[in-house]
Structures are given as structure tokens and as C-alpha cells.
Amino acid sequence: MSLRPAWLTFRRYAATTTGMTLVLFALGVYTAATGSGLACQAQWPLCSDQFIPEMTINPDFIEWFHRVWAMVTGFLIIGVAGWTWFGDRDRRTRLAATLAVAILPLQITVGALTVTLGGLVPGGYTVSTHAAHLIVALAIFTLLGLATIWGGGRGSPRLLRAAIGVAAVGIVASAVFSRAVPFVTYSSGAQAGFYVTGLAGHLGLVAAIAYATEAVRTGYAGLDRSTAKTVRLLAAGSMAALVGTLLLGRDLVLYTAFWQRLNLVALGVAATLAIGAAWTVRGLGSEGTTADPVRGD
User: Fold this and answer.
1) Cβ(232)–Cβ(274) under 8 Å?
2) pTM flag (> 0.85)
3) Would you call 290 exposed, middle or buried from its count of C-beta atoms within 10 A (0-12, 13-18, 19+)?
4) Cis omega before residue 5 (within 30°)?
5) 211-225 core/surface letters (b: 16 or more CB in 10 A; e: else)
6) Among 157, 169, 159, which Cα is nearest to 202's?
7) How far apart are CA 182 and CA 173, in angstroms?
8) How far is CA 106 from CA 58, 227, 233, in A?
9) Do residues 223 and 290 touch, judged by C-beta distance below 8 A?
10) Per-residue pLDDT at 250
11) Of 116 and 250, more confident
12) Nearest-angstrom CA–CA distance, 190 and 123
């Protein structure tokens, strides 16, 4: 007899963990943008000589809350990997979840370095450590997304269309907050908003590429392989451009007019290709096509 409640399926658990990771990403950006990352007097894991700082909205609390959210999310990520090994997930799902756990210690180490100045190595609070922190976080987020998608069972034309729709909406929404487009001041809150919407778009593209690849290999009813290959190519190009904008959203380079123009071009390419992919799959799954069963346990 299983002690797991019936509503707690792998797909729901993995999706929740992926969502927690997205929020963690935004929290990390907000923490860095407000300067709260150095608020705990260059200490880790302590914060101003305390395990729990004053529970009011102040830089110490922001940094501490980010750390607590990261700790909880880390255990959830380990849980996803454990489920793939003790459940009946396929090899690719197990590999994605296990890789996410494997690089988790690297992310924790780099995160510790970014808030301890010199820390364990000279120059901890530098562009290189911030870049590494961002890239590893994006890798973990992507791997969790893949584990959720693959662990949910087969896809369908309807799911492919939904994934592309999420990608297009997320990328367009991220333009509102992007530092490449002067709609709003690129404040701490705007930066968090940019990464929430941009990462939602990224996750949509990850799902679209996964589903399109499956359609190319095994076929979907009502979707020919040529169209699936086109969608996959458009989504991959959009993802490459979007990752560029996500990197340029942080202070990893001296943000001159050149970088702003490059950022604007990358954002435009990402949006155009995603919208192109959405146009390509318009109507899929809306004519009563029976979707393939999706396993939820």
C-alpha cells in the first residue's frame, strides 16, 4: 500500500519543483539587484552572526529568505531525482533529474562565493562568479523542466501548441521589463519580473523542442515530421537568442549602447522565431484530434 496521496503524481511534484526553481531564480536576481547579497556581512551560512535575522523587510531578511527558499528547493530537487530512481521513470527522465542534482553542489558553492567577497577564493563577488551562478541555475532549471516533460508521458499536438504559446507570451511579456526596451525603469522589481517572464518563455521553448523532437521520432497524429522539424528549428533559434537576453539582463558586461542594441536584436529574434513557431502549429489539436495518453503517476 502506497503512503503517497493519490493527488501527488510525479508530474505535479516535478512541476511544483520547477516552479519553485523559477521563483528562486527571480529571488536571486532581486536579492543581487537590491544589494542584499552582501547584507549579511560577508557570512555564509550565517547572516550577521545569526541563523535567523530580524523578520522584517530589510536587506538581511531578503538575503536570508533567498537562502531558505534555495535550501527547500534543493531538497525538492533531490526528491525529483529520487522519484525517478525508485519509480518507473524512463532513462532520459532519470538522467535529467540526476544531472540537476549532480550540479546542485556547484550552484551552492558558487552562491556562497558570491556573498562572501573573497570567500574560499579571491574575488568571490565578481562578474565571473555571477555569470557562473546564472548559467548553472539556468542549467538546473532546464533539466528540471525536461524531467517534468519527459516524466509526464507522451506529448501531443495540443501540448506542442500550448508549449509554443507559453513561449511566445513569455518572451513578449519579458520585453516589457527588459533593459533593452525602455518601457519601465530596470529596477530591482523589474529585473525579477523580466526573469520570471523570460524563464517562463524559456521553459515553453524547452517543452516545444522536446515535443517536436518526439514528433519527429515517433510521429503525432495530425502533425507531419517536416512541420515538427521546422517548429524544432524555430524554437531552438528562439531559445539561443533568449538565453543571450537573459545573460545580458545581468551586469555581466559594461552595458554600453552597443550591448543595448545587441540585446534588443536578440530579444527581437527570440520573439519573432517563437511567434513564427506558434504560427506554424496554429490549429494543431483543435480539430478534435485525440491526444496521446499522458502518464501522471
Assistant:
1) no
2) yes
3) exposed
4) no
5) bbbbbbeeebebbee
6) 169
7) 13
8) 28, 39, 31
9) no
10) 85
11) 250
12) 28
Please answer whether residues 236 and 209 qualify as being in contact, where contact means their C-beta atoms are separated by less than 8 angstroms: yes
End-to-end CA distance of the chain: 15
The identity of residue 101, as a single letter, is V
106 near 76, Cβ under 8 Å?
A: no
Compute the average pLDDT of residues 252-272.
93
CA distance 242 to 174: 10
Q: Mind listing the pLDDT tens digit for each residue in 189-240?
A: 999 999 999 999 999 999 999 999 999 999 888 888 999 999 999 999 999 9
Angle at 161 between CA 159 and CA 166, to 5 degrees: 95
Domain boundaries, the chain: 9-153, 154-284
Beta strands in 142-254 (DSSP E): none
Q: Is the dihedral of CA 135, 107, 22, 86 positive or negative?
A: positive
Domain 154-284 class, CATH top level: mainly alpha
Place of cell 538565453: 243
**101, 81 contact by CB (below 8 A):** yes
Three-state secondary structure call for residue 109: helix
